[in-house]
Design brief:
The protein contains 2 helices and 18 strands. By secondary structure, the chain is of the alpha+beta class. A hairpin with a 2-residue loop joins strand 4 and strand 5. The N terminus is likely disordered. One of its GO terms (cellular component) is plasma membrane.
Length: 286
């Protein structure tokens, strides 16, 4: 039987170890790029690493030769986030990034990976679609990214706003993409790029912009049909009112003319009677 004092000591030690383990728990940092992770050559991009309020040191690392190497650090006591500025953007700055922060607890885990891409190193491809650019929710939408001048190992499709999109694995002069089933969030401007397996973070110039509009065309057509019917009905009603007004006006004019003719006829008869009454009798009858 274990003495009560030993039990109490064990309980205190176990509780202390649990508190210490909880105290060493770190929030995993998050990494992002502003204005985005696809950056034109010679432009500026900012990498944000968000850690914890008690952090005082941030490291930014890039993957080189299968190992992450530190490229920059920011020191600042109780700095919840660090901003790393890259300018100008070039092929050496492109790559796979992670960040890490340090606090009084020690070093945190690494963040998730951020793929920073530089564009503008090859001729731009052409983005097209066989179907109408207006599609209904729930349908699929297919696009083609083609390069007539040079073949690429792979093609990538991007959308304004940084939405994750499928990546074409096949290369050559053309790559195909299928979006769907689409919803209203798929509406926007799309571009595509070509690149090579040896330099996956160095892309071509952006293609032309293709706008996709996701809309409920059936409801719109139904609404338009109803609108057309209402307009036609309104025009018919206006025409009927015009006909009735014209008929009423014609009847009124005819009635007025009839009364005038009647009045003139009565006046003529009275005048004739008066003249006949006032006419002098012949001398032989006086």
């Amino acid at each position: 039987m274990i003495p009560k004092g030993t039990k109490l000591l064990c309980l205190v030690l176990c509780l202390g170890q649990r508190i210490q383990a909880q105290d060493r728990n770190f929030s995993i940092p998050t990494i992002s790029a502003v204005p985005g992770s696809v950056v034109p050559w010679n432009e500026t991009v900012k990498i944000l690493c968000k850690g914890a309020p008690e952090s005082y040191l941030y490291h930014l690392k890039i993957l080189r030769n299968s190992k992450y190497q530190q490229v920059n650090e920011i020191l600042g006591y109780q700095k919840e986030a660090a901003v790393f500025t890259i300018h100008p953007m070039d092929a050496n700055s492109a790559g796979n990034y992670r960040c890490q922060y340090r606090s009084y607890k020690g070093w945190s885990e690494h963040s998730d990976a951020l793929d920073l891409v530089v564009t503008g190193f090859y001729d731009k491809p052409f983005l097209s679609a066989d179907q109408d650019h207006r599609v209904a929710p729930g349908e699929n939408f297919s696009l083609r990214c083609s390069s007539a001048s040079i073949p690429f190992d792979r093609f990538s499709l991007t959308k304004d706003g940084g939405v994750d999109l499928p990546q074409q694995q096949n290369g050559g002069h053309q790559g195909s993409f299928t979006l769907g089933p689409v919803n209203y969030n798929f509406s926007g401007n799309y571009r595509c790029y070509g690149w090579y397996n040896a330099s996956p973070h160095v892309w071509s110039s952006p293609s032309n912009t293709l706008e996709l509009v996701v809309t409920d065309t059936m409801n719109q057509d139904y609404t338009m049909e109803n609108l057309i019917r209402m307009i036609v009905a309104g025009l018919v009603l206006v025409a009927l009112l015009a006909i009735l007004a014209e008929d009423w006006h014609s009847r009124r004019v005819l009635h007025k003319e009839g009364r005038q003719d009647l009045a003139e006829t009565s006046c003529s008869k009275q005048k004739c009677q008066t003249e006949w009454t006032l006419q002098p009798a012949p001398n032989g009858h006086l």
